[in-house]
TrEMBL record, chain A:
UniProt keyword annotation of Transmembrane helix present: yes
Name under which the protein is recorded: Sugar ABC transporter permease
Gene Ontology molecular function: ABC-type maltose transporter activity
InterPro entries referenced in this protein's UniProt entry, alphabetically: BP-dep_ABC_trans_perm, MetI-like, MetI-like_sf
Record field: transmembrane: 21-42, 79-108, 120-146, 158-180, 201-223, 260-281
Similarity comment: Belongs to the binding-protein-dependent transport system permease family. MalFG subfamily.
Membrane protein topology class: Multi-pass membrane protein
Alphabetized CDD domains for the sequence: TM_PBP2
Subcellular location: Cell membrane
Classification of source organism: Bacteria, Bacillati, Actinomycetota, Actinomycetes, Micrococcales
An example Gene Ontology biological process: maltodextrin transmembrane transport
Pfam families in UniProt: BPD_transp_1 (PF00528)
């Protein structure tokens, strides 16, 4: 794992601590800070009769029946369908966001045109509108689209993805734009002289070099689209088409019939895809380092 | 990432255009381009056709302009930036710009609970609500029949009286009807409609009103389900010509008062109303509302403090951890990094509720276990509640910054850092003088966006404290942790008449102006930063 | 390209969604507590009338707001089921049509009252739900007539070291009280939230919180807060956990807590909440009811479905079986009398007060909970003043509309 082999084979605590040991101390402290509120969620997910926060006695019972019920025994709450829907919506949104954002970032980074500065700024400003009631307009918009193209309107996953892609430009573009700027322009100039068109330069020269930021933007977009609740709950009405965020919330939305333990089990399982995706993408995120070290 | 040593990262500057051979795209590329544009054009043309038929001329015009623009951009040999920007911009224009524009339009209407539809809908609603069943009147068994004057009702009272009538001819008793199980099912001169026939005429049957006598004040029979009827009287009558409702018992006349409702001269209103454009009324209310104006200053200060500190803390923690874990020698980085995004991977509202429980003064984990039975009022003391909110918001938000910083750190060429190290710069100085400025160039806009997001971060406030604690001695339901957006929610949505979307939109626009102004100022400073490099 | 466009047009104009077929299908929205039962009931309706019923499961908390949004676009369901407290909001938006129930006296009066707004009936009530007192019979088998007796018994158990808390009722979050759960105690002091109007139903201009008894109730809250009977830190989880772990003999809660209490193997009985202030204690009664879309193009079928079928004993017993709530139809309530929990909760509900269905109630909850919470926590220097201030601000908010 470590790229630089230790020069001295003998282990010296002080030296180890000065080099990486303190990093582990910080890592452990923050790992505890990150994880300890979620231990409650895990504990309640394993206790079918417990409450979420009724007691500080954690893991008084370890029983997987909440998980079994969620996966197999609740035809009214099709957890497996929600899970798959979420994966599809998250992956399609993430990949499309990366593609649309990278196209725009390339234009902003490599081309000079009137309104470029203002354009970049406007992209960010538009997204600052308070979302408090944007859903009203989104509902009416999708309702109108449904009347023309039912396949991409209300209660369709494509419709939801389209709404999410409305946010594809914006912060993400800016993030990529900053990264694109660090790729030397001499590379595309060289490609141009070799006779490569703009599209080929983009796809074969630039994109491979900006892998880390593509991975980061893809992950951010995946997580934000899979955890998004407000728009998804307005667009998707049929339970079999809903996402995890919408479906799981229905377990606890009514105080009198809230089922927190079942909800917790669902939340634990819902957290797996983003973490798995991150684990998978890490090598691309960090690729810059390794590539640099190899060179 | 491979970086050519001779080419240090250069900020975007105007480069002289070099004349190069314009490569000719291959035939297959051209074909794909034409095919995909053709499909798009076909789909949009169909939509245009529907829009034109439906009379939505404004949307038709906008869509037509969009379609032409896309075709020009992709068939032109120029407009290279357009080719790259158009795909994203289409989505942006439809799903963000339009949404903002529509919300802005709502700000000038009275749209909200009680003003939810069109005037025609409101009139039928008022008529329906004005009907009441005549007390102690019998339940009529009815059969819907087709007579000489169109649809009519054949009725049987519990005592066995059979009558028939239609909207123009009041009920009159007949004796030659055919009975089945005590209910008249057909009468000479009338055709009985089967239940399946009724299903194709549901709206007409529901609107069927058969008076019981020549005097309209005696009431009329209606049927809601096609088989039972009741005697109803209405206390309101609508005069379409004068556009007024008249209350037959009190004589009061209700007129369209221009605010989307019928009102009498003494101010009584009929429900429901309808949506109308009200001009700047919502803005006037937003500025004039006492429940907003009173606590406005302290709320604005706290909103800015909350948004700024949230950005600062999440960025500081995220960047710190990204740097700490960015050491090639360190083992187990992968595991640490995955744990760091845990708070981001769980549903935010669940985490906020768990934190609220952990911070319960008497029973919470923090006080009972970590602090050995202390009773620190984490969320119920006005000052401490603010601190707690910042702690939780940092927990919720730093993984985002951690991810972004981890990615952005990769854009810093090792050579630059190595060079600094060779110059003998110490770690902190390297970071402060080399890495941080480079990072800030690409991250500053993100920080501004995060600021804007937190400025309107409704969820974390609402779920943790609900804006509280409130001062019960002040007669106002605004708490010490309320930010502008939660205040707006309380003022515009939790009112005695329900949700007022018009007022909420007006507030949204005002807040948008504030945030945008602050952001533009922020960007100006960022640009200055960019030029330094 | 033009050919493609034309093909697209002709393709949709011959699509099956022609109006002729639409007449024989109705759409029904229901939450997870009703959907399973509906599936069985709907079959008889479909068969008898040769029509199709499309059931759509919705998140119960979103039914009213989604319906208000979608009904005017013509895309709402024909019929839906939800709790009665949204009735006024639905009426003022003009999205539901009044219905006529042939014999209203066949149903629990509180059920009919709950769906009556401005003197008109808007829904077919199917079930009643309210809180009651649940008592750990292993700790205390006796039924108490007054709340003071109950507290005395609870304190005795505490002194004997058998329990940790003499009595629990949940609070709200963030230091607010839970006025819904405290309401039976409050009404026993003669402090209902609204008075009733001449047309029947609550009168938003008659805020009874401000009556002469109100300050007495506020003083009692302060006293209970001081002695620890009420505690603003008992969230639902903590209160229920205290009961299921045997740390308290009494809890005020609803039937939704029973599964956890049964799972904890606590011996319990469900009884009416003893009066604390001398008058009868009345909990709020939430009523689940079916409503008909005013914009429905199938109003005949929709009315037949809601009134005739959902009002039937077969349907209401089916709802009881999946939702464990007391049926609103009296004959259906009789026929499930073998279930002692539902019978006991139903008896308490029958004497309760309908959960207010007037939109003005929106302006009451937050202030009410915050002020009660502050009084219980001892943060209000003078409970009576805090109460009067609260009444004033609620009145002002209602008047503003």
């Amino acid at each position: 794992m470590s790229q630089l082999p230790a020069r001295r084979p003998r282990f010296r605590l002080r030296k180890w601590f000065a080099a990486t040991g303190w990093r582990h101390v910080i890592g452990i402290v923050f790992a505890v800070f990150c994880a300890f509120p979620l231990v409650y969620v895990l504990s309640s997910s394993l206790n079918p009769n417990g409450t979420l926060l009724g007691s500080n006695t954690l893991f008084s019972k370890v029983d997987f029946s909440n998980y079994v019920n969620l996966l197999f025994n609740l035809p009214q709450q099709p957890f497996v369908a929600w899970f798959l829907n979420t994966l599809v919506i998250g992956l399609v949104t993430g990949a499309s966001t990366v593609f649309l954002g990278a196209l725009a970032a390339y234009a902003f980074s490599r081309m000079r045109f009137a309104g470029r500065r203002v354009g970049l700024l406007t992209l960010l400003l538009v997204q600052m509108f308070p979302q408090l009631l944007a859903v009203v307009a989104i509902f009416l918009l999708l309702n109108a689209i449904s009347n023309i193209f039912p396949a991409i309107g209300l209660n369709t996953q494509i419709g939801l993805i389209l709404v999410y892609l409305g946010g594809a430009l914006g912060v993400n573009t800016y993030l990529m734009y900053g990264f694109f700027n660090t790729v030397p322009a001499s590379l595309d100039e060289a490609a141009k002289i070799d006779g490569a068109g703009h599209a080929r330069t983009f796809f074969t020269i630039i994109l491979p070099l900006v892998g880390p930021i593509l991975a980061v933007v893809g992950l951010l977009s995946f997580i934000s689209s899979t955890s998004e609740y407000v728009v998804a709950s307005v667009v998707l009405t049929d339970p079999t088409r809903q996402t995890l965020a919408v479906g799981l919330y229905s377990f606890i939305s009514q105080a009198t019939s809230a089922n927190w333990t079942l909800f917790s089990a669902g939340a634990v399982m819902a957290a797996i895809p983003p973490m798995a995706l991150f684990l998978y993408l890490q090598k691309y995120v960090i690729s810059g380092l390794t590539a640099g070290a190899v060179k | 990432m491979t970086i050519a040593p001779e080419a240090p990262p250069e900020p975007p500057t105007e480069r002289p255009r070099r004349t190069v051979l314009r490569p000719t795209p291959s035939l297959s590329v051209i074909l794909i381009k034409i095919a995909s544009l053709g499909v798009l054009d076909a789909v949009v043309l169909y939509a245009l056709f529907v829009l034109l038929m439906g009379g939505s001329y404004l949307v038709f015009a906008l869509a037509l302009i969009g379609l032409i623009a896309i075709n020009v951009i992709y068939f032109s040999k120029r407009m290279l930036p357009g080719k790259y920007l158009a795909p994203g911009l289409v989505f942006l224009l439809i799903f963000q710009v339009f949404v903002v524009g529509y919300s802005a339009y709502i700000a000038f209407t009275n749209f909200g609970d009680g003003h939810n539809g069109t005037k025609a809908d409101a009139i039928t609603g008022i008529v329906a609500n004005s009907l009441s069943r005549v007390p102690d009147s019998p339940t009529y068994a009815v059969t819907v029949v087709q007579g000489p004057n169109g649809l009519g009702l054949l009725t049987t009272t519990p005592s066995g009286t059979v009558q028939v009538g239609d909207p123009k001819n009041p009920l009159h008793t007949i004796t030659d009807a055919q009975l089945s199980g005590g209910k008249a099912v057909s009468a000479p001169g009338y055709t009985t409609l089967s239940f399946q026939d009724l299903l194709t005429k549901q709206t007409q049957v529901a609107a069927l009103v058969v008076p019981i006598s020549a005097n309209p004040n005696d009431g009329a029979i209606r049927t809601a389900d096609g088989s039972t009827g009741f005697l109803y009287k209405s206390n309101l009558s609508y005069d379409a010509k004068a556009d007024t409702f008249t209350d037959s018992s009190s004589g009061a006349v209700y007129r369209d008062d221009g605010n989307g409702e019928y009102a009498s001269s003494d101010g009584k209103k009929l429900s429901p109303g309808w949506t109308v454009v009200v001009g700047f009324k919502n803005f006037a209310q937003a500025f004039g509302d006492q429940s907003i104006r009173g606590p406005l200053l302290s709320t604005i200060v706290w909103t800015f403090a909350f948004a700024f500190l949230s950005v600062f803390l999440t960025f500081a923690v995220g960047l710190f951890l990204a740097v700490v874990f960015n050491d090639p020698r360190m083992r187990g980085k992968k595991i640490y990094r995955v744990i760091m995004i845990l708070p981001y991977a769980f549903p935010g509202f669940l985490s906020a509720l768990v934190w609220a429980g952990l911070m319960n003064p008497q029973f919470g984990f923090i006080n009972q276990v970590l602090l050995g039975g202390a009773t620190v009022p984490w969320l119920t003391d006005p000052t401490l509640a603010k601190v707690s909110i910042l702690i939780v918001n940092t927990w919720l938000g730093f993984p985002y910054m951690f991810l972004v910083c981890t990615g952005a750190l990769q854009s810093i060429p090792e050579e630059v850092v190595e060079a600094a190290k060779m110059d003998g710069a110490r770690a902190w100085a390297t970071f402060r003088q080399i890495k941080l400025p480079l990072l800030m160039v690409s991250l500053a806009p993100l920080l501004i966006s995060t600021f804007a997001f937190n400025f309107n971060n409704f969820n974390v406030i609402y779920l943790l404290t609900g804006g509280g604690p409130t001062d019960v001695n002040a007669s106002i339901n605004v708490g010490s942790t309320d930010i502008l957006i939660t205040l707006v929610y309380k003022v515009a949505f939790a009112t005695a008449s329900g949700r007022n979307y018009g007022l909420a939109s007006a507030f949204a626009i005002l807040i948008f102006i504030v945030v945008a102004t602050v952001s533009v100022i922020g960007f100006r400073r960022t640009r200055a930063l960019e030029e330094i490099n | 390209m033009a050919a493609l466009a034309l093909a697209g047009c002709s393709g949709t104009s011959s699509s099956p969604s022609s109006p002729a077929a639409a007449g024989s299908t109705i759409t029904v929205w229901a939450d997870d507590t009703h959907i399973a039962a509906l599936k069985t009931v709907v079959a008889t309706f479909e068969k008898a009338n040769n029509v199709t019923v499309k059931l759509i499961q919705k998140d119960g908390a979103k039914i009213v707001s989604d319906f208000i949004q979608q009904a005017p676009t013509g895309n709402g369901p024909d019929v839906f089921v939800t709790a009665n407290d949204g009735t006024g909001n639905l009426v003022q938006n003009g999205v539901i049509a009044p219905i006529t129930i042939p014999n209203e006296s066949d149903y629990a009066k509180v059920g009919i009252d709950a769906v009556t707004y401005n003197g008109k009936t808007y829904g077919m009530p199917v079930s009643l739900e309210s809180v009651a007192l649940i008592q750990n019979t292993a700790l205390d088998p006796t039924t108490h007539d007054t709340f003071d007796q109950l507290l005395a018994a609870g304190n005795k158990l505490k002194a004997a070291g058998k329990v940790k808390y003499p009595f629990v009722v949940q609070s709200g979050t963030n230091g607010a009280s839970d006025p819904y759960h405290l309401y039976p105690l409050e009404t026993s002091f003669g402090v209902p939230v609204f008075g009733t109007s001449s047309a029947g139903g609550y009168d938003s201009t008659d805020l009874q919180l401000g009556n002469a008894q109100g300050t007495k109730w506020a003083a009692q809250l302060a006293a209970w807060g001081k002695s620890g009977v009420l505690n603003p830190n008992y969230t639902y989880d903590i209160a229920l956990n205290a009961f299921t772990s045997g740390q308290t003999p009494y809890i005020i809660t609803g039937p939704w807590s029973l599964p956890k209490i049964q799972a904890a193997k606590i011996a319990y009985s469900v009884v009416k909440i003893p009066s604390a202030g001398g008058q009868p204690s009345q909990p709020f009664v939430g009523v689940q009811a079916f409503f008909v879309n005013k914009y429905s193009k199938n109003s005949l079928l929709a009315n037949k479905f809601a009134v005739e079928y959902m009002g039937s004993e077969a349907a209401q017993v089916a709802f009881y079986k999946t939702g464990q709530r007391a049926p609103a139809l009296l004959s259906a309530f009789q026929s499930v009398s073998s279930d002692k929990d539902v019978t006991a909760f139903g008896a308490v509900s029958a004497n309760g007060a309908p959960l207010p269905n007037i939109p003005a109630m929106n302006s009451v909850w937050a202030d009410w909970g915050n002020t009660e919470g502050a009084i219980i926590a001892g943060k209000a220097a003078n409970p009576a003043t805090a109460w009067t201030t609260m009444v004033g601000s609620i009145k002002a908010a209602i008047a503003k509309g």
